[in-house]
Amino acid sequence: MEYGFTQKLFGYFYHSSCMKQAAKQKLDINKKAIKQEYVSIMKNAKGIGKSRLMSSYCMGAYFIALDIPVTGSLL
Question: Helix, strand, or coil here: 20?
Answer without folding.
Answer: helix
